[in-house]
Amino acid sequence: VWPVVPNREGTMLLVGDSSGTVRLWDPNNGEILRKLPGHTERVWTAEFNRDATLTAIGDQSGTVHVWDAYTGELVQHLSPPTPGASVYRVLFSPDGALVASAHEEGTVRLWDLATGELRTELSGHTGRVYSIHFEKSGRYLTSGDTEGQVLLWDLRANSPKPRELVRHQGAVYRVGFDPKGTTLASADSDGLVRLFDVPSGELRHEVQAHRGSIWPLAFHPHRDRFVTSSSDGDTNVWNSKTGELVYRVRGHGRTMATARFNEDGSLLAACGPSASTANNGASSQPKAGGSVVDI
User: Fold this and answer.
1) How confident is the model over 84-118, as pLDDT tens digits?
2) In this predicted model, what pLDDT tens digit does every residue of 18-60 receive, in sequence order?
3) Were 14 and a residue from 5, 89, 147, 291 both cysteine, which residue would form a disulfide, CB within 3.0 to 4.6 Å?
4) Cβ partners under 8 Å of residue 131, min gap 6
């Protein structure tokens, strides 16, 4: 089962799988709200828009479908000029006007949600693009690939050209902007995190955060903090200004797939084969195992 994506309010859970089946669940009672047809290949990525009225889903064929989350109606069918390259990540722009898709062949495509037309194709990567993220104003987009490239794009330019930041030795699995839009983080398969200034692209800090690949990385909604988790089983919270470790949550012993703060930043959830929550730096282990925790 992949991906598993909740909306911001926690009232819907979007779940895809290797057969292309996509379901919307009510996580409070475990009931299926609706099935979203149309995908015949493995689903790699899914995302809600900000108000959770729409969801974008990308699959192994390179197709992106945008659905009305409440009616189950197809809003847009977004198909690249040459189908066949997997879509590894989809995102809505902050204003909701664009859908961005990251592809296996190293391109990032920006689609007009209202018309379904391909507005811009961003080229410059040499590897598969696994991660993309919009800065809060929508002006900048960052992307990371399996060859260690991290690119910063100014979308206000008529023909956006990439600014390549300091290249990683390992594959980049996660990139992201902080809520202020002044810091960009990139995390790789060697457990390394780099923090860059936005918009200059200057390297601020380099943190050897883990002993294994970093998949989850998320910024605190209000403080200068970010969280990382890894295949080493640790979940670490860092100061995004200094790069120093603030606290560490241990006890999993296995790969962590997701880590995120709640809306007010008072709680942290880290999920994998087992799961835990942290409050003000103190960790707690649920009595029952599993990868979904009510925080």
Assistant:
1) 789 999 999 999 999 999 999 999 999 999 999 99
2) 888 899 999 889 999 999 987 888 999 999 999 999 999 999 9
3) 5
4) 88, 89, 102, 143, 144, 172, 173, 174, 175, 176
Q: Tell me the C-alpha distance between 274 and 8, whole Å.
A: 22
Cβ–Cβ < 8 Å for 260, 216 = yes
Other beta carbons within 10 Å of 275: 21
Task: Beginning with the edge strand found earlier in the chain, give each strand of the sheet holding 235-239 in spatial order.
Answer: 214-219, 225-230, 235-239, 245-249
pTM over 0.85: yes
Q: Is 169 exposed, middle or buried (0-12, 13-18, 19+ CB in 10 A)?
A: exposed
